[in-house]
Each structure stands twice: as structure tokens, then as C-alpha cells.
Specification:
- With about 200 residues, this protein is α/β, with parallel strands linked by helices.
- The chain has one domain (about 1-200): 2-enoyl-CoA Hydratase, Chain A, domain 1.
- The chain contains ten helices and ten strands.
- α6 packs across α7 (about 140-150).
- The chain starts with a strand and ends with a helix.
């Protein structure tokens, strides 16, 4: 249910469980973390999903069993954030719950017009993963982060673009081409130059 395609320096990771809104089981989340941890040789990493939802977060039954508060989410987002590669979340649809962490950890987020963004963690009675609120606040500001995390608001793609949560809105049929086009210059550049620019942007 997690697909990995390698094309030279470009790694594309696809969540393929569309019948369950690409919700993540413990095994899927572990596999995603392992891929991110092993992607040191990748020059670009694209995360996407099959169907009309990027990911609804934790699988309902797995969440009841404790996956919603598992350290696996933080392990995944931390592994993505550590990569020298340019990391792109190509959001083919709605992004919800703990799955938002992997997108927040990416360098760039693009989304289809129908995408919605929400993280109903407080309503469900537990805290978000430690890195998610500061990453969100760094992108959109503390007040808007609280609007999503404390106000429980569902944000449209246009609002997400206006807020700075995503960088572009792309029509569904062009989404992956756009993600690959963004990655092209980094893949073609000298690795030390690409690493240096990423480090400068983060400092």
C-alpha cells in the first residue's frame, strides 16, 4: 500500500489505499519512515497519494489502538526534514490529521483545487506530534496555526495558498508533472550546491 518508484535521483512515494481514504496503518507508517530514513541518496523526494484524498491520517481501528499518538509520526516527519533532497508534497486531495506532519516537513507543498486541510487533534482529545505546531506556525503564523489546531477549522486549497500553507494550486491532471518540474533543477545541480542552498534557506 506504499509504493516507491526510483528514477535516478528522483524518488516518488505514493500512498495507495484509496478505498480507505489513504488512511495509514502502523505497518504503512513504519514503511514510510523507513523509506525516508533510507533516502539519503535521493536528490528529490515526492510524496503523493492515489485517488481523491492524500491521506486521512491514522486508520480508524489503528487510531483506537494507539496509532494516533504513536512516535512513528514524529519519526517520519523528522526523517523527511533531515533529508538533503528537495522534498515535495504533491497533495492529490485532502490532507487530514497526523498525515499533515509529513507534508509540513517537506520543503514545498502543492495541491489540487479540491484539497481540504484539517487537523482535529484537540477535538479527538490528544496533542499533535511535537514538531507539527511549530512547523505549521513557521509557515502560516501562530494565529492561523491555532485556527486549525484549536479552532478545528477546515481550510480550503485557496485559503491554504493565501495562508502560505501550500505554494501552488495545480489541476489534478498536471500535479505530478508540476512536482517533477520543480525537482528538475535540484536533480541536475551539483549535490553540494543543492545542499548548500537548502541549508541557507533553513538557517
Amino acid at each position: 500500500m506504499i509504493e516507491l518508484e526510483k528514477d535516478g535521483g528522483l524518488w516518488t512515494v505514493t500512498i495507495n489505499r484509496p478505498d480507505k481514504a489513504n488512511s495509514l496503518t502502523e505497518a504503512m507508517l513504519t514503511e514510510l519512515a523507513q523509506i525516508a530514513e533510507s533516502a539519503g541518496e535521493a536528490r528529490a523526494l515526492i510524496l503523493t497519494g492515489r485517488g481523491k484524498v492524500f491521506s486521512a491520517g491514522a486508520d480508524l481501528e489503528a487510531a483506537k489502538a494507539g496509532l494516533a499518538v504513536s512516535p512513528l509520526w514524529e519519526r517520519l516527519s523528522s526523517a523527511i526534514a533531515r533529508l538533503d533532497a528537495i522534498t515535495i508534497a504533491a497533495l492529490n486531495g485532502t490532507l487530514a490529521g497526523g498525515a499533515m506532519g509529513m507534508a509540513l516537513a517537506c520543503d514545498i507543498r502543492i495541491a489540487v483545487p479540491s484539497a481540504k486541510f484539517f487537523y482535529p487533534v484537540m477535538k479527538l482529545g490528544f496533542l499533535p506530534q511535537p514538531s507539527d505546531p511549530p512547523r505549521m506556525a513557521a509557515l502560516i503564523g501562530p494565529a492561523r496555526a491555532k485556527l486549525i489546531l484549536m479552532g478545528g477549522q477546515k481550510i480550503t486549497a485557496q485559503e491554504a495558498l493565501d495562508f502560505g500553507l501550500i505554494e501552488r494550486i495545480i489541476e489534478s491532471e498536471a500535479l505530478m508533472d508540476a512536482a517533477r518540474e520543480i525537482a528538475e533543477d535540484t536533480i541536475a545541480a551539483k549535490p553540494e550546491i543543492a545542499r548548500g542552498i537548502k541549508a541557507m534557506c533553513q538557517s
